[in-house]
Batch of 4 targets.
Target 1
Amino acid sequence: MSIFRVFLAIAVTGMMLDNTMDSFLVLKVTNPYKKAVDSAQQRSTCKYNTSQPMWEEEFSFLIDTNDVPGQLHITLWDANYVLSDSAMSSPVVVELGELEVEGGYDRRQLNFLESGVIDVSVRIRTPTCGVRVGVDLHDKEIQSVGSRRQKVAAGIQALLGMKERPPKVPTISVLCSGGGARAAIGTSGAVRALQEAGLLDCCMYIAALSGSAWYLSVLYSLKGGPDVDNCTQYLRDRCAHMGPVINVMKIQDHLSDVLKKYFDGHPVSLVNIWGEMIGKVFGRDLARQDESLLSDQQSVAGSCEVPYPIYTAVYVREGQSTDLFAEWIEFTPFEFGIRDYKLFSKMDDIASSHVLGMVTTRTKEFKLSFMQGLWGSAFASSIERWAQTMFSDDQSLAARMVKAVLEATDLDDWRPFAAVLPNYMKGMSTLPTKARRIQGNLKEIFAQYCHPGHKQKSSSGDTEFDGEPSEADSQAKVQKRDEETSFSEEATRKRLDTTRGGAGKHGPSVRFSKDDYLTVVDAGVDFNLPFPPLLRPERCTDIFLVFDYTWRQSQDEDPFKELFKAKEWADEHGWKFPNIPQDLFNPVRQENYYIIGDEADPSCPVVVFFPLCNVSRREETIPGQDESFAEVDPFRHVYSTFNFEYKREDFDHLHELCRFNTSLAVEDIKAVIAKRLA
C-alpha cells in the first residue's frame, strides 16, 4: 500500500446564475485514505452576493493506492447562515484516473445550471510529514541557543568580574507562574530587577504560564522589539483600562471576530471571546496590534539578544480530572507540541487540520490574542476547581448547596472556558512516505504502487514504521558538562541532544490519534509553575530562577505547594530535581527567597525560589529604589486572580515589591553561578 497526496487545481469561469447568491463549491473524492475520510470532502471559499462566481483554488486529498484512483465529485451550493446550506446542482463527475499528472489543464464542461466551464489540473506526490517526530529541539532553537551561549558567557564574565570569558557556562532558565494580572505585574518587576542586575543577559530561557504569559508575549511583540522599561509602562497603562474591556456587558463588542471564525467552519468557545477581550487590552501598541501572531516573534526568538521564550498550556479530556490526565503542551514562536508524545508541529499550522501529520485544510494561524486567552484564562478550571477555590472554607448555605449539586451530578469536571485546537496528531499511528515528484497517468501510477509488501519510510528515508513511532535513546545519559568547551552550533546540538531521563508516565495515547480536536486549558489547572518544558533533558537547565505568584489566603500559608507538584512531576518522568525539605517554610521566620539544591549531586539543577511575599521590605533597602511601598500586602483583595483592573498606585506597589525581592537575591545568585563554574 502507498498513500499519495493529490493536489487538484480548480478554475471555474463563465458561470451565470439566475439570481445573486452566496455560492461555494463542494469537492469530494470517492476513495480517500481510510484515516483521512473527514478530509475527503472539502469546500471552496464562498463568493458572496453574486450571480457570476469565479474560483481559482487548489485542494489536496490523501488517496490510497489499494483502490483505483476513483472520481472527483463537484457540486454547487448556496450558503445560508440561518437555515441549512442547499445544493444548487447535481454532482459533476471527473474521472481522476484519466487526468495526466502535471499535464496542464483538462478543460471540462460543467452542468451547474447549464453554465460554467471548469479547468482541472492534477499533481501527485507521496506526502511529507509536517509533524516533527522525536524529542530533539527545533533546529532554529538549537541555532538560537548556540548563538545566545556566547552572549551568556559575556554576561557572566561581566556579572562576576572575570578577566576572561568562561569556557563553559551553565544554562539558567527563568520560570514565572500564573496568577492573572497579578502574575503579569509581578513578572514585570522581577524581569526588570534581573535586567538591572545584569542577570537577564545570563539567562538562556524564559518560560511563562497564564498571566505571566501575557507579560512575556507583550514584551516580545512590542514595536521596536523587547524593551523591559517600555513594557512596564505599557502594562501599567493597559491594566488601568482593563475594567471597561473585561466586562460581561461588553461581550457583544467582541462577537464579530468570533462569529466570523464560526462561519468559516472553526469551532469556537468562550476562550475566543476571552481572547478578544485580552487582545483589546494588550494589542494596542504591539508591532501588528491585534493582528499579532506568536510566529511573529521568530526574529526575536531567533536572535541571541534575549532569552528564548516558551509558553505553556495543558491538553485535557472532557469529563476527566486533571489529576488523571493532563499533558503539557509547549509553544514557541517556531513550533508547538507535546514532548511526552514526541510530536511537534509548526506554529503557523496550529489552526490547520492535520491527518497523518500532513495539513489537509490550511487555515491562518490563530491570533496572539487567542493564544493569550488560551494560556491565561482565569476561568479555565473545571467547575469543581471553581468551587474549591471560591468555597474552600465557606460553610454558608449557598456554598453547601453548590457542593451538593456537584456531588450529585457529572458537572464537576466540566470546563466551560476550555479552548479547542485542531488535533495535529490525528491518525499518527503510521507515518507517510518521503516526498517524490511523480509524472504520468494517474491510473498507471496507482497500478505501479499498488502491490503487496510495499513499505513506507519516514521523511528521513531510512526508518520503517508499523504502528506508533518508537522513542530512540529514551534512556540516554547526559554527557559531562566539563567536556563542553566549544560555542559552535555542532557542540550545542550535541549537548542538547542528550537526555537526562526517560519517557513520561503517560506515553503515546491511542485516543489522541482519533479526535478531531484537542481540549486545551490554562496549565495552572495542573500545577502553576511551567517546569515541564525546561525540565526536558534536551534543554539541560542547571539553574532555575522561579517566580511564583500563586494566590494564597495570606503570607503565612505554605508557598511551596506548587513547587512540590513540580518535584512530583519530575520524579514521575525520571528527571533530576532537588529534594525540598518538608520543614523549609517557617511562618515565623520567612525568607524572601529560598535556594534549593543537592550538595551530593552536582549535576542536579539548583532552584532559586521566589514566593510572593513582603518579608524584608520594611527592614532592608536597595539603593535607587523607592521605599514608599513598604507596607504593601500582596494578598489583599485588589490583587485577587479575578481582578483585572489596577489603579496605577496598586500596580506600582506590586511591581516594586517583586522588583525589590528579586534584587535582594542578586549576590546569592551570583554565588550559585560561580559555584557551577568551579
Note: The first strand starts at residue 3 and ends at 13.
Target 2
Amino acid sequence: MNIWHPSKRFIKRIPNVLHRTLSDGIENFPKFDPKYIRNFSIIAHVDHGKSTLADRLIEIGGVKSSLPQQLDNLQVERERGITVKAQCASLRYSYKGSEYLLNLIDTPGHADFTHEVGRSLSLSDGAILLVDATQGVQAQTVSNFYTAFENDLCVLGALNKIDMPNANVRTCKMEMSKIFDLVASQITEISAKTGENVEKLLPQVIEVVPPPQGNPDAELVAILHDCQYLSSPGSVLLTVFIKEGTINSKDSICLLSSGKTFPVREMGVFQPEPLPTQTLSSGQLGYLILKVKDVGDVVIGDTICMPGSTVEPVKTIPKPKPSIFSGVFPDEDTDFRSMKESLEKLVQSDTSVSMETDSNQNLGKGWNLGFLGTLHREVFEQRLAQEFGTSIIMTKPSITYRALLDNGKIVEFNSAKDMPDSYHVVKWEEPVVETTLIVPGDYLASVISHCMSCRGIQKENSTVGEGRFLLKFEIPLIETVDDFYSSIKKISSGYATCDFEDAGFWETDLTKVDVLVNGDKVDGLSMIVRSDEIREVSMKTVKNIAKLMPRELYKIIIQCVIGVKVQARAEVKPYRKDVTKDLYGGDKTRAMKLLARQREGKKKMREKATVKIPRAVFRTL
C-alpha cells in the first residue's frame, strides 16, 4: 500500500511525533483563556513576502530555525517558491505583563488557490494585508482583501521590502489608502528580510484583532481544517480548530459525517513543529493524530464532537466549482489500485479538486478531475508524483460548456464524448471570467490589445496610483486556460498582474471534431472546437499526432473529421523494403510487378492491422 511521504524536511518533523511521550512538550505549554488568544492570517499577492514575514514572526515568538520558509512544508512549494497549502503556527508572546497565544496562518498568494485562502480566513479574526513596496497593490492583493472583508475580518496594513532601493513607500501607501480605505499613517513599514519594524505588528494584532468567541467549558465543537497521512500505516494527522469546548489527550472524538469514534493518539499545537499538549480548548488551532482505516472517514470541513453528542454540523465554506477538467489515467508502469488510493488521499486533503470516474477506449479506466486553474492542475500532478510516487497520464484541460436543447433542458458538459447532438441544440454557451489586471502605464496599450485579441470586452479602466492602471475585461475562460497569464507577464516584462472571477456564460458556436487513425475513431483525442477555429485547430492537431506516432510497415493516415467531412489530414510514411535490389537488368516490368505486389501487401496490412496509439500522444497533446 502506498503511504503519503512528505518532503525530506517534513519527514523529520511529523513521523517523530508518534515516538514521543506527551511529557516532552506539555510542561512548557500552558492552557490559555480565549481572551488571550488571537487568530490571524497573512494575505498578499504572490511573491510579496508572506512566508518570509511568517518566519520573522515565528522567530519573535521564540522559535529559531536555520531554514527559510518554515511554513512551506511541501516539496513542490520549496521547488516552485510558492505557498500551496495554508499552514499554521502557534506563537507565545508577552505583552503588557500578559502572555498571549497568537495563531498565525500563512496563506497562498496565487489566484488558483483562492479557495485555500478563503478556508484559512474563515478560521481567523483578523488579517495582515501585506504589499510589496517595490510593486504596489496587485490584482491578487485586491482579491484577497475583499475575501477578508466578506469574512468581516479586521485588516492591518503592512508595507514590505522598504529596504529595497526601488521601494516607493509614499505611492504604495496612497494606493492602499485609496483602494482599501486604510489610514496611511497606520500602515506599518517593514522589511521581512531584515526584520526591520516587524516586532511592531504583533502588538497591533493583539490590540486590533478580537479574541475568538467560544466557551472552553461548553460541549465540544471543532472543525477539521486539514489532514496529512503519516508514514505509519493508517495514522492521520488532522489540523483542527476548536470552536467550542475542550479536548483532552485521553479523550475519544467523533467525526460527525461518518459517525465513527476514534481515540486520540496524540494532540498538540504547531510551533511550527508539532508540540504535544495535554489539552486543546476553545479558540485554539492544533492537531490530532488518529488511527483511521477507511480513507473516506476523514472529510475536510467535517465537525468533530464527543461520542454521543447531538451538536449540529458547523457550516463551512462550500466547495468551489472547478473551472477546468482533465482526465487522469494510470501510466503503463502504474498499478490501478494503488493509483486510486493515492488519488483519494490527495483529493481528500485538497477539497477544491473534484473527482469522478471516467473511462477511455485507449487509456482504460480512470478519473475526470476538476481544478481551479492550470497551476493548480500542475501542482496536483507534481504532488502526486513526489508524495506518492505515482506516474499518470493527464489529458488536455477542458472547460464546462452549456447547451440549451430544443426541449428546454440545459445540459452541461466538459468533454467531447458528453457533447449533445447539434441537431437538438438551440444554443451553445461558454463560460466567461471577469479578468482584473493592474498594469504599468508603459504596457497599457499592449495589454489591452492582447486582451482584445482573446475576445475580451473592456469593462473598466481606472488609475490606482502614479502611472498604474486597473483594467477589467470579460474574457472567455477557454482563452485564459493555456498561456494567458504567461503572455501577460511577457508583454509587461513581468510587471502586470491578473486575477479571475466567474462572470457567467456567453453564447458561442461549438462543433465536435473527431480524430481518425486509419479510419478508426480515437475517443480520447476528440475535441470541442469553436466553429471559426476548426481548420486551424484540425491542421495543428494532425501534424502534432503525426510527429508522435511511430512508423510502421504500413501507412498511417490521421484525419480530423466532422461527421464524414475531413477537415485536415496527415500521413506517417511506412518503412519500405527495397524489393528491387536483387534485380540485375532485364525488363522493367519485373520491377513494376514486385512494387505492385508490395503495395498490395501493405494495403491489406493496413486494413487488418490495429494501430496502437502510444500513450505519449495523449500525454503530450
Note: The two ends are 31 Å apart (CA to CA).
Target 3
Amino acid sequence: MCFSKCVVATLRPAVTRRRGCASGKSRRLWYYRRKSHIDKQVAAAKLQAQEGISQIMESVITPRDDLYTGISNRHQYYSNSSAQSLDYSNLIKINRISKSAEKRFLNFTLWNARSLDGKIAAVCDSILYNKTDIFIITESWINATNGDFIEADLSSSLSNFNIQHVPRNHRKGGGVAVLSKSNVKVMMNKTNVYHSFELLDINTYAQNEIIHLLVIYRPPYSPGHRHTVSKFISEFSTLLEIALLAPGHLIISGDFNIHVDDMDCNDAANFLDLINSLGLVQHIRGPTHEKGHTLDLVITRAADKCTSDFVVDHKMPSDHCAIHFMSNNMKPSPKKLTKSRRIFSGIDSDTLRVHISEALSAINFVTDSSGLAFSYHEAVSKVVDCLAPIRSSKVSDKPRAKWFNPQMLVDRRYLRQLEIRMKKSKDVTAVTEVNKQVFRAARSAYNDKLTEHKTAYQRTRIRNADQKSLFAIIDEITGTKKVLSSIVPDSDPLRLPQLFCNYFGKKISDLRDNIKSSVSSNSFSVGGYSPPSKDSVQNLAFTSFAPVSVDDITSLISKMPAKSCDLDAIPTYLVEQNVDIFAPIFSSSDVVRCSL
C-alpha cells in the first residue's frame, strides 16, 4: 500500500502558481527548473516500481526441479509411445467450410418493382451482378394481358430462369412473383383466400432441405382496397398458424406497407407484438422506401438461423430499395449440359479428298434407291468419324444475358460510388438532398442504358435474320410460339412419327379431294387461269427421261444453299468444295434413276 501511494504521489503533476507580476523570463526559468525536477522524480518512480515488481515475482514464482523433471518425463513418454497404441476410431472427422463453399449458399433478393413492364433489363442486371438464385418481386403488375409478354421478355433476356406468379385479377396493379434458377426446385402450394393481402406460397428444395417461402404484398388502405391493418393482422395470424406447423425453414418476405420503424405507430406495435409472440423475428433495419420508412420486411423463426447478410440496395428503378440476403442452405449444383460437336475446320482438304474418293469408289451399288442412300451415308459417315470425330464436353448451365455490355460494369461501379456518398452524407441536410438528386439522376440514366442495350441487341438480331429464323425470333420475343398440343397429344413417344404421318396424310388427302371437286365443277381458277378439263389431260404421261450428266449434278450442288442438319453425313459446304468428286458418283450410280 505504501509503495502504491509513493508512486501516485510522485507522478502527480505539480500545480503552478502565479508569482506576482514577474517578468516573462523569470517565469520561463522557473517552469523549466520545475519540469526538470518532475522528470527526475518520474524516472526514480519507474525504477522503484520495476524493482518492486521483480521482488514480487521472485517471491511468488520459484524454480521447481521436480516440476521440470515431470514435464520432461511426460514428453518423453508420449514421444516414445507407438502409433499403434492410439485408437483413431474414436475420432470424428469435421469438415471445414472453405471459402469456395461459402459462395454456394442460396442468394435471395426482395424488391417492390411497381410494374415489371420495361424493367426486365434491370432485373437481369441485378441477378447477374449479385448472383441471385431466387428473386422475389412484389407489385409485379402481371395480369392476363401482359403476362405472356413479360415471361417471354424474361426468357429471351436471361436464360436459365423460371417464373411463378400470382396476378391480381379484379383490378390493376399488385401481383407477386418469384424468379428462380432452373436448378432450384420450386413448387407452388395451394392457399386459402385472403382479402387484405396477396400471397404466393412456394416450397424450395435445396440439398434435401425445404425452404417454405411466403411472398406477401399488403396494399395500403384506399377506396379500392377497404381493408384496415387490423383486418390484415387478423388474417396474417391465421396464415402464421398454418405456416408455423409446416416443415422446413420459414421465410416470410414482402411489402407489408406498415411503418415498423415508427415506434409511435399503433399498427406497427400490434404487428411486431404478433410476430414476437409467435417466436418470429424481423431482420430489416433502416429505410427501404425513398420517404424513409421500413416497408419491405424479411421475417423468420427466431430460433432458426437460416438467413444472414442483409444488404439494402438503392440502385433498382423504383421507389423501393432491393434487399439482398443469403440463406444458410447450400444451393443445388448447377445443371451440366453436354455439348457435342465436330471440328471440321481442322480437316486437311487434300486428306479429305483422298478419303472421300476411296470411300465412294468402294460402295457396292445396287438398284434399290434406299440401298444406294444407305451405302452412301455409311461410307461418308465413316470418313467424317475418322477425320472429325464427335467431341463431347460438359458445361455448367449458368445465367447468361447476351445483350449485356461489359462497359455497363464500369457505369455500375460509378453508380455504387454515388450510392455510398449518399449514405455517408446523412448528417448535413443540404448535402444529403444534393447527393440524393445526383444519385437518382445517375440511376435513371444507368437503367435507361440497360434498356437501350437490350433493345439494340434484339434489333440487330431481327435485322440480320433470314426469313426462317425471323419468325422464330419474333415468336421468342413476343411469346407467341405455336402450341402443338392439338396436333400431338400427350401419348407414347414411339407413336409420335405415326401421328405426324396420319395428320399430314389427312391434310394432303383433303386437299386433293377439294381440288378434284373444284376441277369437276369447273369452278377452280388461280389468277384468272383455269386448268384444262379432265378429258384433255387423261392421256398425257411421262414416257421417257433424259440421262443425268455430271454437269447437271454439278450445277444442282452448286446452287444448293449451304445449310445442314444433324442427319447429314457431311456438311453441305464440304460437298460443294469437293463437287468434282461427288458429281461423277451421283451421275454414274443410277441414284437419280432409282429415285423415280
Note: Confidence is low (pLDDT under 50) at residues 1-22, 56-84, 95-99.
Target 4
Amino acid sequence: MNFDDVYDNIGHLGTYQQCVVTLIFVSTIFSVEAISMVFVGAEMAHWCRVPALANYSHELQRLVAVPWSNLDDPSTYHQCQMYGLMYERYSQEEILNWNRSKMILETTVTVSCTQWTYDQSVFVSTIVSRFNLVCGSEYLNQLISTIYMFGVLVGVTSSGAVSDKIGRRVALFVYMVVRLVGYAVAFPASHYAMLAVGRFVIGTGTAGVFLTTYVLAAELVGPRVRTAVGVSLQIAFSIGFSLTALLSYTVRDEIKYQMASMGGPAVLLLLLLVLLPESPRWLAVNGRKEEAIKILNDISTVNLTSLPENFTIDDLNEEGNGVQRKNFVDLFKSPKLRLRTLVIDFSWFTCSLVYYALSLNIGSLSGDVFINTTLSGLVEIPANIICIFLLDSPYLGRRLTLSGTFFIAGLSSFICVPLTIYNFGTASTVMAMVGKASVCMSFSVVYVYSAELFPTEVRHIGIGAASMFARIASMIAPYMGTPLNSVWAPCSSVVFGCFATLAGLLGLLLPETRGHPLLDTIDQAEQYQWRKPVLCKNKMAPVERRNADYNMNTVGTHKHSDGESKSPSNDENSNDANQCSRC
C-alpha cells in the first residue's frame, strides 16, 4: 500500500480538499505579477518639457517647441528633440499666435531633451514616466522584466529544496513574506536600482509561493483528480491574467495599481493561508507520523469517510525505494534519454519564449491594450480545458497534442508576417491570440509529458533543467516585442514561427507515454518498447497488455539496494492520466 492508496479511503477530492484547493485557487489568481508589467511598464507618448511653456496646452507646447519626426506628417512629433530657442523672450501673445513657418527657420538648431512631458490620456503614470525610461533608456524598461524573471528563476530553483527541508506550509509563509518585502521596496522606490531590487525580490517570492502551493495541492488530493486540479490552477492564473486588465483600466496610476492588485491581496492571503494544513505526505516522509495521521483523520472527518482500521504510517511502502538518484550529467549519457532531454528542454524554452513574449508585449498589438490583455487571458481558459481531453485522447495523446499545438502556434505566427507588413492590425491581433492559445496548450502538455518521459532516477533533475531553460527564455522574452520589431516590423513573428515549428517537428521524435507505466531507471527508459495504445472496448485491456509487455522485457525488474529483484514501482504516478481507468 502506498500513500496514494490512502485517498481511496478518505476521498480523492472531498469537502476538505475542495476548501483547500479553493483557497489555493484564489491565491494563484494573484500570482500574475509578471503580467502586471504590461501596465506598470507601459510606454507613454512623450515630448520635451519646456518650463517656459508649462502653462500652455500640450498641443500648443508641441507646436511651438517640438520638431516633426516625419515632415510628410505634421501630426507626428519628435519625442527626444526640441528647438533650441529661448522661449522666455517671447510674449504670451506671440506664443498663442505662434506661426511655425515664420518663427522656425532652417538655421534653428534642435537640442536633446533633458525633461519630458507625458501624455496621460491612457495612463496617469508608469515606471517609464517615474524614471524617465525614454530616449536611449528604453532598454531599462525591458530590463526590469528580465530582472523580475531572474528572480523567478531563483524562486523556482530554491523553492523545491526549501519546501523539502522545512515543509510546504512554512516555506509558503517564507516566500509570502519575501514577496511582501519586495513590494515594500518597489512601491516607494525613488531610484531605478531600488525598483530593480524590489522586482527581483517580488519575482523570487511569487515563484516560491506559486510552486509551493502547487505542490501542496497535488499532495493533498488523490491521484484521480491530480491532473484536473493542476490544470484548474493554470486556469486560475488565466483568470488573474484577465483581471489585471480590468483593474488597470480602473486604476491608471502604476503605484496605486500595484498596491491594489498585488500588495493588498498579498497581505490578506498571508492571513488566510493560516488555514492551510501541512502536506501529510511530507510529514510522513520526514518521520512526523503522528502529525500526518492527524491531518489524514481531519480530512476523513470532514469528508465523512474513514481511514482503514488500525491504520498507521508504517503500513505505507516507502516511495521510490531502491531507486538511485542521479545528477544532471546522467541525462546525456545514454542516447535515447539524451535525445528526449534535448527535445524537452527546447520545448520548454520555446513555450516560455513565445508565451511571455506575447504576454509582455500585448501593448504593441493593434487595438486597445486593456481589451487585448483581457482576451489574451480568456483564450487560455478553454485552451487548458480542451488540453485535458486531448491529452487522454486515444487518437492524439501527449506526442501529437504537443507537436500539433506547436505547429498551430508556428502557422499563426507566420500568417502574422504579411498581416503586419500590410497593416491588417485587427487580423494580426486575432492570429496572435490564436498563437497564444496554442502555445498555452503546449505549455500544459509539456508539464505532463516531461514527468512521464523522465525515469524516476532523473525525473526531478530533468524537469528542473527544463524549467531552468524556460526561465532563461522568459528573461529574453521582454526584448522580443518592440525592441526586435524596431529592426523589422514582423521580425518577432518570424522568430516565434521558426521556434514553434522546429519544436513541433522535434516533438515527433518523442515516444507516446499515454497509458504507459512510469519508469524508474535509465536502463528501463533505454530498453522499454513504447507502443501506441490499442483501441478496444475493454478499458483495462490496453493497459494490462502494455504492462504485460513491459514485464516480459529484460527491463521488467531492477536490483534494489538490498539485492532483491523487484518490479519497477509506479508509485510516483502523479498524473491521473496514468491510472488504468484512463485508456
Note: The first strand starts at residue 46 and ends at 48.
